[in-house]
UniProtKB/TrEMBL annotation:
PROSITE patterns: THIOLASE_2. This is Acetyl-CoA C-acetyltransferase. Keywords: Acyltransferase, Transferase. GO terms for molecular function: acetyl-CoA C-acetyltransferase activity. It comes from the Bacteria. Transmembrane segments: none annotated. The active site is at residues 89, 343, 373. The keyword Acyltransferase applies. Residues 265-386 form the Thiolase C-terminal domain. It is an enzyme of class 2 (transferase). PANTHER family: ACETYL-COA C-ACYLTRANSFERASE, BLR7806 PROTEIN.
Length: 387
C-alpha cells in the first residue's frame, strides 16, 4: 500500500476564551496556519489536491465551508478545493485521516489537513441551540428513534465524565492531581521553549504579536478543592475539564511521489489510522476500545509506543483510558493537555498531532499514538512514526 507522509505541521498559539484570538475571524484563523504551512514547506500551492479542515458548529464565521474560505483568504490558488468535516472533537484528526487515505488510495498526492475553532465567537453547541431558537429543530436525543433505542435519558459529556469517574473508581482528588500535573507540564514546556518551533505567531489588530499559549493556569490542589462540582454530589469540576479556547492547526500530507517530485523532506509516516465507536450515552469511553483495536491491527504493544496524546476532555477520560490500556503516565500528554492548554474542538486533533510530532523529534522517539473522545461515543486513533 502506498505510504502517506507528514511533511510539516504548524499551529497558532492557543488563545483562552475571550483572549488574544477571540476577535479573529474564523476564516482568517484557519488561513493563518495554511499560509504558514505553505511558506514553511516551500510547496507549490497550485499542486495541492484538496484542503480538509475540521470544524464544529459551522454557523456564522464558520459557515459556508470554512476550509475552502480559509484557503482563499490565505491568498492561494482558486482551483484548489476545500471541504469542512465534523466528527465532533475529533474533526481535525479525522481530517488528517481523510487526507492520508486520499494519498494512500493513489487518488491524491498533496493534501492540506487540519482544523480551526473560534469558541469565543461561536460557543460550543451553538449550532444545536440556534436551531431550537428558531423552532425548526430539537436536540438529537429528542429524536423518537433515538429514544426508542436509548431511552429518555440525559446525554451529555458532563454526565459521561461523571459516570466514568464512578465506574473506574477515580476520585476527585486523583483527577485534581492529574489536572495540576497537566498545568505544571504545560508551564514547563512553555518555559523550555518546546512549542516555539510548532507555533506560527499571530500579529493582532493592535499590532502586538501573540506567540504563547494563554490557557495554562497557576493553580493548586487547594484552589481546585474549593470549586463546586458540576453536578450535585459529583466529582467533576471545571478544574478537571478542558478549557474553552481558540486556535487553528494545519498539516501537509504527501505521497511518496509528491515527496520526490517537489523535493520535500517528510518528518513522519502515518503508520496506522482507524476510528471506532462505543456507547453514545457513555460518549467519552471510545478511546479505550479504539486504542485496543489499533494495537491489535498493527501488532504493536502499548510498550512499543514512545509517546501518547490522549485528549484531556476531562481528567476521568484519560485516567480510565490509562487504567484500561496500561499506558504509562510518564509517556502520556508529557507537555500538558486540554486541561492546561485548552481544547479548541475543531482544531484539537491537528494541534495534538503537531505537538506529538515535535516531541517525538525532541526526544528521539519512534512511535506516537494519538486518540481522543468524540461526540456520539467515537474515537480516532493515529499512530505516527518519526522519520
Amino acid at each position: 500500500m502506498p505510504e502517506a507522509y507528514i511533511v510539516d505541521a504548524v499551529r497558532t498559539p492557543v488563545g483562552k476564551r475571550g483572549g488574544a484570538l477571540a476577535d479573529v475571524h474564523s476564516a482568517d484563523l484557519g488561513a493563518h496556519t495554511i499560509a504558514a504551512l505553505v511558506r514553511r514547506t516551500g510547496v507549490d500551492p497550485a499542486a495541492v489536491d484538496d484542503v480538509i479542515l475540521g470544524c464544529c458548529d459551522t454557523i456564522g464565521s464558520q459557515a459556508g465551508d470554512v476550509a475552502r474560505t480559509a484557503w482563499l483568504v490565505a491568498g492561494l490558488p482558486d482551483h484548489v478545493p476545500g471541504v469542512t468535516i465534523d466528527r465532533q472533537c475529533g474533526s481535525s484528526q479525522q481530517a488528517v485521516h481523510f487526507a492520508a487515505q486520499g494519498v494512500m488510495s493513489g487518488t491524491q498526492d498533496l493534501v492540506v489537513a487540519g482544523g480551526l475553532q473560534n469558541m469565543s465567537a461561536i460557543p460550543i453547541s451553538a449550532a444545536m441551540l440556534v436551531g431550537q431558537q428558531y423552532g425548526f429543530s430539537t436536540p438529537f436525543a429528542e429524536s423518537p428513534g433515538w429514544q426508542a433505542r436509548y431511552g429518555d435519558q440525559e446525554v451529555s459529556q458532563f454526565r459521561s465524565a461523571e459516570m466514568i469517574a464512578e465506574k473506574w473508581d477515580i476520585s476527585r482528588v486523583a483527577m485534581e492531581e492529574f489536572a495540576l500535573a497537566s498545568h505544571q507540564r504545560a508551564h514547563a514546556a512553555i518555559a523550555e521553549g518546546r512549542f516555539k518551533g510548532e507555533i506560527e505567531p499571530v500579529t493582532l489588530a493592535d499590532g502586538s504579536v501573540f506567540d504563547t499559549d494563554q490557557c495554562p493556569r497557576d493553580t493548586s490542589m487547594e484552589k481546585m478543592a474549593g470549586l463546586d462540582p458540576l453536578a450535585p454530589n459529583g466529582r467533576i469540576t471545571a478544574a478537571v475539564a478542558s478549557q474553552i479556547c481558540d486556535a487553528s492547526a494545519a498539516m501537509l500530507i504527501a505521497s511518496e511521489a509528491a515527496v520526490r517530485t517537489h523535493g520535500l523532506t517528510p518528518r513522519a509516516r502515518i503508520h496506522h489510522l482507524s476510528v471506532r465507536g462505543d456507547d453514545p450515552v457513555w460518549m467519552l469511553t471510545g478511546p479505550i476500545r479504539a486504542t485496543k483495536h489499533a494495537l491489535e491491527r498493527t501488532g504493536l504493544s502499548i510498550d512499543d509506543i514512545d509517546l501518547f496524546e490522549c485528549n484531556e476532555a476531562f481528567a476521568s477520560v484519560v485516567l480510565a483510558w490509562m487504567k484500561e490500556t496500561g499506558a504509562s503516565p510518564d509517556r502520556v500528554n508529557v507537555n500538558g493537555g486540554g486541561i492546561a492548554l485548552g481544547h479548541p474542538i475543531g482544531a484539537t486533533g491537528a494541534r495534538l498531532m503537531t505537538t506529538l510530532l515535535a516531541e517525538l523529534e525532541r526526544t528521539g522517539g519512534r512511535y506516537g499514538l494519538q486518540t481522543m473522545c468524540e461526540g456520539g461515543g467515537q474515537a480516532n486513533v493515529t499512530i505516527i512514526e518519526r522519520l
